[in-house]
Amino acid sequence: MPMALPELVRKSAEKLLDRYCAQKVPEDFGHRLKVIYEIEGDAITLVALRFGPVQAGLPQRVPVAQLRYIALLGQWTLHYPSGEQRWVFYQNAPPSLHLGKLLQHLDADPLGLFWDGLTRPAL
Questions:
Q1: How far are the Cα atoms of 23, 48, 59, 73, 122 from residue 8, in angstroms, in the given order?
Q2: Distinct helix (H) and strand (E) counts, the chain
Q3: Distance separating alpha carbons of residues 16 and 99, to the nearest angstrom
Q4: Contact 42, 59 (CB under 8 A)
Q5: Residue 73 needs a FRET pair 20 to 30 A away by CA distance; which of 26, 47, 51, 56 works?
């Protein structure tokens, strides 16, 4: 079972991710796309919610990225989705002490591993 994030690490990550998610989707996409994060143990999963017509019901959940905290090293790693709820380490971004650096790699997404298949939010 994964360990929970240390409280200060969690609060710092939440503050950064609250801003990140709020700024990720341009206003003109706001009614069709929203980016949220979910924390479970030592992992934070970014999820895009795609909304269809009002009558369509629940939004479609699209996993975008997972950020994992390695407490022993005090570092974050970035992972991309690879079908059937599996995550693969993103080798183009080394582990980092700074979560913001990994978000920059996520924004760049040169290989289309994170935002591919979505209406890409403005970076």
A1: 23, 26, 32, 15, 30
A2: 2, 5
A3: 8
A4: no
A5: 47
Please give the single-letter amino acid code of residue 6.
P
Report d(CA 65, CA 114) in Å as an integer.
6
Q: What is the pTM of this model?
A: 0.86
Residue 16 burial (10 A CB sphere; 0-12, 13-18, 19+): middle
Domain edges within the chain: 7-108
CB 31 within 8 A of CB 14: no
Q: Which tens digit of pLDDT belongs to each residue from 21-53?
A: 998 877 766 677 889 999 999 999 999 988 876
